[in-house]
């Protein structure tokens, strides 16, 4: 079987990007906004309270009313103050009702006050927020699917208990970055639970045909006593623990709200109540209203998947954006991927790359892979760094030697450096390892297609599914098959080295029938006129194996190479 690979399109246009991403961190919770208020940083405090108030936070709505009433952080507005106090009162904040009763005699126009309050309620009342932002509960309990929660087989023990772990699952199906998030009883099973969880094999995450690290996965490890009396004792302890968390959660304790949602999501606590408070997505919503970024991310996942509520992509995207803007890495990366939908402008791509580079600095593995792909395939020279992409791919293969994505990225990076033989070698490795891991072959075929690589799949061990995926393709040689023999790198200009100037040059040339380089032309460069001359001199000395088509010597024109000049 052959694969026919057609037109040359930069692969970054296949993973394209829409609106730009620019993340700004906001106050993490209501206490941060209150602290700004206490420090008399009123303008910033008003801005932060407004964010919480618009999500339905009663205390923030009260504070916003105070600030409008007293003119702190902006102009005084008694009608806005009355409107926010009214919303806070509706949400059960007692002090807001007292303020309303006190200020009624001061309101110049009761009619105008009513109109402003009704206008605000149309946007930010509980009913309005339920329509726009809150989940629509569907009556299900909302246990998360195995992609997010991994329940393991119960472990026999001398007493019963549980440990809830959180960690990441790599592309090989191994758990890492493990931490204990809850345990009952405390300081008994944690070590055994971690050892047991690390010894298990997990299913790697394949999302939209892409092999990714599965982040923030909950792993449930339960221990089961053989004695029924001991097991009943544990259930009484669990019931007490559950009630304690519930009381704290109802009192706006964010940590308790998240802990309660995790217990429910993992199925450790099962409720037969029809109340929405028995559903984990409800508690993620409460923690999100309280400003918790991880809760906003989990809320977005529940809304996306329809777990414990009706699926709603618009609401899911809203909460994902809110989490990303607070700097939550998983949300930032996922939002980036969601916006890989249309061809980006150069300006849009620059902002996206900046976001990915920041995530990579923070050791985000999925961002590392995505950024390496952009460096290896971008149609914009400002982001096309095949040598750097190759180094990143080798870093990824050091951690996971059989990772098909990094093999494909390395193939693209070698192609960008006109090392065609190595490119073919690593594309075949990518396909083989994808087959081994049951990863769809489509993204690798699309990447090869975009780069005009022709692959002969007859040597691959394809099962029926893979055969069907690749059928109806033909072999057509279209790529310039150039095999470099000697390619000395240009000398770094003395002045540029002295002034620590870095940059790149895009050069086009022809390889004649003898494998010699002719017609060297500088197509573009940054900065201009700095590295051009040294590039011309070096490229003119390059030598290739004499190219042939159908065993006949031939000339290969319009060979394009980008050379990066960096000071190490």
TrEMBL record:
It is a single-pass membrane protein. Residues 135-232, 477-568 form the TonB C-terminal domain. It is found in: Cell inner membrane. Keywords: Cell inner membrane, Cell membrane, Membrane, Protein transport, Signal, Signal-anchor, Transmembrane, Transmembrane helix, Transport. The keyword Chloroplast does not apply. Residues 1-27 form the signal peptide. One of its GO terms (molecular function) is energy transducer activity. One of its GO terms (cellular component) is outer membrane-bounded periplasmic space. Pfam families: Sel1 (PF08238), TonB_C (PF03544). GO terms for biological process: protein transport; siderophore transport; transmembrane transport. Belongs to the TonB family. Interacts with outer membrane receptor proteins that carry out high-affinity binding and energy dependent uptake into the periplasmic space of specific substrates. It could act to transduce energy from the cytoplasmic membrane to specific energy-requiring processes in the outer membrane, resulting in the release into the periplasm of ligands bound by these outer membrane proteins. This is Protein TonB. It comes from Catenovulum agarivorans DS-2.
